[in-house]
Give the backbone structure.
Amino acid sequence: MFHLRLVPDNTRIPFMRGRYAGIILSIVLSVASLGLFFYPGLNYGIDFAGGIVIEARTPEATDFGKMRSTLHNLNMGSVALQEFGSANDVLIRLERQPGDDAAQQRAADRVRATLAQEFPGTQVRRVEAVGASVSGELFRSGMLALGLAMVAMLVYIWFRFEWQFGAGAVVTLLLDVTKTIGFYVLFDLQFNLTAIAAILTIMGYSINDKVVVYDRMRENLRIYKKMPLRELIDLSINETLNRTLGTSLATLLSIIPLAIFGGEALQEFGIVLIFGIFLATSSSIFIAAPILLFLGENRLRRGAPEAAAPGGQPQQAP
């Protein structure tokens, strides 16, 4: 039976030769992402910044110029219009209005009435008005979810592997999350509850990828007792490379249509996931593995010394 192999079975790429470059580049990108977080900052969506979002469908192709002018005449601040789905579908975003949550609802009702008057036959399909107190609570809850997920993954890795594996996985996750935040800022993507879901998904994918590689490293640690840790890590990465690339490719093929045809609600989610797959796959090789090498040298060897050539059977050392 034919099996698709993305790389030959006997591949021996010396990944650890680039360990310093990989970690330094990752740290630089993470620090730059933190800088972008403070300036210019995230583009908070309605969920976290508060405001009004209205989804409407016009009977004919939307006249964006007329609609924008009409809504601007309401003097409710900046108005953003975006086409999604068909030419008849429009997403209207208004900045948060002065006052309490009731003021946001009154503004939404005013827009709804204006659309009905100026664009007869328009259907308002969705209206969301999020106030300051609600948006602040949602933001805190989202950050708490990220923090708890990070702690849960640390505990899981710590109990399943030695502490060096857990430290390497969590440090890599932190670097992955900061770079994802930088991605949101750099491309001016909306940071909302969907963004939290995207980051949690990336974290789960990333930790799963690292567990697969770590399992092979732990297995090889028992087999090749005298092999230098650097060579053993390279061997383990190469042995799991087909699985890593195959899983990443299959996941990409399922997400790309989402990013292209998912519409306004899911398009950014899909784009971030595509970035996250590349990020998680590369960080497993060039970040998590080098950190394990630095922390585990002379600490991960236990038991009676044995020697075995790669692909052979262990032999009792003299």
Notes: The radius of gyration is 25 Å. The first strand starts at residue 43 and ends at 44. The CA atoms of residues 52 and 129 lie 4 Å apart.
